[in-house]
Amino acid sequence: MSTTYEEIRAQLGWLCDAMIPGDSELGMPSARAAGVLETLLPRALKARPDLAPRFYEIVSRLPAETPRDPLAFVNAIPVEEMDVVGRFVAGAYFSGEEVSKKLGFTGFQALPMNPDYDEIMETVEPIVARGPCYVKV
Amino acid sequence: MNTGTKDIVDAVIVGSGPSGAIAARRLAEAGLSVVCLEQGEYPNYTSINFDEPTFELKRDQVFSWYPNRRMNAADYPINDEESDVAPFMWNGVGGSSVIYAAAWHRFQPSNFRVKTLDGVGADWPLTYDDLAPYYARAEEQMSVSGVGGDPSYPPFDPPLPPMPMGVIDKKLFAAHKRLGWHIWPGTNAIATVKHNGMNPCVRRGACMAPACFDGAKGSVDRTHWPTNIKLGVKLVQRARVSRVETDAAGLATGVTYIDRETGKTHFQAGRIVIVSANGIGSPRILLNSHSAKFPKGLANSSDMVGRHLMMHPHGMVMGLFDDHFDSWQGPTGQRAYSQQFTETQPGVGFVRGAKWQLMGTGGPLGTIGVWPWGKRAGWGAEFHKTVHKRFGRSAMWSIIGEDLPNPENRVVIDPILKDADGIPAPKVIYRCDDNSRKLVKWHEEHAAISMREAGAYETVIAPDSRETGWHILGSVRMGADPATSVVDGFGRAHDVPNLFVMDGSVMPTSGPVNPTGTVAALALRNAEAIVNSRRDQKVSSKVA
């Protein structure tokens, strides 16, 4: 029988913020404050049904109770397992609107195609002035 | 076996990637009847949406570069356990142009003469001047944009105007001006204005992830297949070719393929056969086409089929900057390139060189992994500090090194592994040599100098990675001598005069640049030669 999100909620409760705490200096929210636990992570898991079972498997093996040193515990998890967990937790975190805004990430948006041809020609001028630089054979 | 025979056509093409598409168009324009067999389907661009918040998480799901991980229905397994590099490709209409970055290059004239210049590899049976007119035509067909007059080439003009210069481009141009090193605005098979049915690029930066959503990137599913079909080319999807058939005289009669929808086997007869299935697929088909007359595989009397596989040694150097700029936006392909060190440098302990292409570093999720950053972002307080340094404040020199051909680097048929249709699968044996390792290290050190000169406060050299096999070249070598090559300078098999191979597999040397420009120009030149010599073309009496 497959694990449900509710069954790993306790583990995620301490895990997500141990991985991504808030950073007041950079103005970044913690994972929980960004909505990872409630909305962003369930959405991320739904987006990658091919990888989600492995995430559930790894997280369900973690203790439900918060370890004494959560970050040390996270860092002791095998790297390849944390790559899976990290991809989902960080992927969920970055998918939040507030987080994107604070990072200055405007998304993969359409930008105008407005080259300044004068600037381009001025830039290449000194390169052209040096003359041909290929080997003639 | 359920076997059906299809009508005889002038040309059967195996594979609908750049070479197959370009050859099909030229042959159809000249009035030849053409059938193209493609094991996959048209890419489904709607399977992922750049607008979704989870885009970055999903981007490698359906359109992963690595077929062994992707294993879509059209993919076949590749045993790459004995390869230092994992080969990438796309199996479907458009071939690997669907997932390429579209960085577009000609070879420099010297790339055709490395044996003469440096005593390594092989000289090509053609020159830059032979190929130049076909480069120009292919660039028009592929909607190539850029700035003309690059002094690292004989004079030529890309047909479409360039992209705008971004913040990072300007930093690197200024740096190279101070260093006295070559740099030039990127040439890309990406439309910058409306052209041949293509839309102008909007620099979304999703070119390779999975593919262009805006109809601007020159992938041949868009640049060629709509026109090809109007010209009467019959494109058969989900048709996996198992072998090329021959008659008692040793002439090709057509190909056997499996209809992947019905599982039925068919024979498609053709007066000529063109194999354009990439540097792994093409030798696989030839080796699987063994017979009593061709016991080592078709066109393989030289024992060169599968040998001399080249996959371009690759390096990456990231520069970390203080200011925030749009490092995730497009074009992905190349914002600029440097050909300062493409030739052999004195006293460096290796021969030949590399091209550097300036690229952005993608979205935030791409900043947390070990590759290309050398170490993971880490968790806890370290996470934010690292992401802050990398995301939106970094640029990358991607280094493509010339790979020296080695007969022991090769594609063979795996004795056990088979694809979903029971066709023996390929095995890749590829080892990076000492020359490649020294070359990459030297270029990484110099690319770091470039980044620092541009203002980077820190540079990062990417750790070695297997997953860099974007270019699969050389395994069906072209040459004038039938004893040391498989096809002649027009892609015609020395052993089978109505069998042609057109793709990167025929390249005797790799050059240090993205190969699709040269692959496309060769296909056009070879197709033109077929048209011009069609009255003299030998064909099997079975299909005459």
Secondary structure: elements and pairs:
The complex is a heterodimer of chains A (137) and B (544).
Chain A: H1 5-19, H2 31-34, H3 36-47, H4 52-60, H5 70-76, H6 79-94, H7 97-103, H8 117-129
Chain B: E1 3-14, H1 18-29, E2 34-37, H2 55-58, H3 67-70, E3 79-83, H4 114-118, H5 128-141, H6 167-179, E4 184-185, H7 220-223, H8 225-230, E5 234-236, E6 239-246, E7 252-259, E8 265-275, H9 278-288, E9 314-320, E10 336-338, E11 354-359, H10 381-390, E12 394-401, E13 410-418, E14 424-430, H11 434-453, E15 458-461, E16 499-501, H12 516-532
Parallel strand pairs in B: 1-2, 1-8, 2-5, 3-14, 8-16
Antiparallel strand pairs in B: 4-10, 6-7, 7-8, 9-12, 9-15, 10-11, 11-12, 13-14
Overview of the molecule:
The complex is a heterodimer of chains A (137) and B (544). Chain A is mainly α and 137 residues long. Chain A has one domain. Chain A has eight helices and no strands. Chain A is elongated, with a radius of gyration of 23 Å. The model of chain A has no long low-confidence stretch (mean pLDDT 96). Chain B is of the alpha/beta class. Chain B has one domain (3-44, 82-536): FAD/NAD(P)-binding domain, CATH 3.50.50.60. Chain B is 22% helix and 18% strand. Chain B is globular and about 70 Å long. Chain B starts with a strand and ends in a 12-residue tail after the last helix. Chains A and B meet through helix 3, helix 5, helix 6, helix 7 and helix 8 of A and helix 2, helix 6, strand 4 and helix 10 of B.
